[in-house]
Amino acid sequence: QNQDHYCVKPQNIDEYIAAQDEMYQPRLKEVRAVLQKVLPDAQERISWSMPTYWKGRNIIHFAASKKHLGIYPGDEATAVFAEELSDYSVSKGTVRIPYDKPLPAELIGKIARWCYAKYAE
Questions:
Q1: Distance between CA atoms of 16 and 19, rounded to whole angstroms?
Q2: DSSP-derived secondary structure for the chain
Q3: What are the φ and ψ backbone dihedral angles of 97, each rounded to 5 degrees?
Q4: Parallel, antiparallel, or unpaired for β 58-64 and 68-72?
Q5: Which fold has domain 13-119?
Q6: What is the rounded CA–CA span in Å between residue 75 and residue 12?
Q7: pLDDT tens profile 30-84
Q8: How crowded is residue 100: how many other Cβ atoms within 10 Å of its Cβ?
């Protein structure tokens, strides 16, 4: 994984996005806006070096990789939404969304709400 390319570990999501390659920043801001909208009660933080939405425990993460945006809702969520995620590469609780595909904002919102209902404390 290419999560080790920071000189300084980001302390918050703004710093995380600013530390990424400029070509990935718009997509990161886009997914953040979706998650902020559907998870208004969750806190933003950095966990496992990734932007994370938290409410008593981690709800969902996202991160930039060279070829795709990674969304990390966990194994159960990727199983529940397997059919709707069939256009994407999915493994071990990870959804990979290529940068050249439109962001499935509605689907990400639906998954995030499911995770919140299941995991938020």
A1: 5
A2: --TT--SS--SSHHHHHHHS-TTTHHHHHHHHHHHHHH-TTSEEEEETTEEEEESSSEEEEEEE-SSEEEEE--HHHHHHTTTTTTTSEEETTEEEEETTS---HHHHHHHHHHHHHHH--
A3: -115, 110
A4: antiparallel
A5: Aspartate Aminotransferase, domain 1 (3.90.1150)
A6: 25
A7: 999 999 999 999 999 999 999 999 999 999 999 999 999 999 999 999 999 999 9
A8: 7
Structure pTM?
Answer: 0.91
Residue 10 in contact with residue 19, Cβ under 8 Å? Answer: yes
Closest CA to 10 of 2, 1, 19: 19
**Rounded CA separation 59/15 (Å):** 20
Question: From edge to edge, which strands make up the β-sheet containing 68-72?
Answer: 43-47, 50-54, 58-64, 68-72, 94-98, 89-91
> Which residue reads 């709707």 in tokens?
84
Q: If phi over 0 gives left and psi between -120 and 50 gives alpha, with beta otherwise, what is residue 95? A: beta
Residues, the chain, total? Answer: 121
Tokens of 56: 């008593």
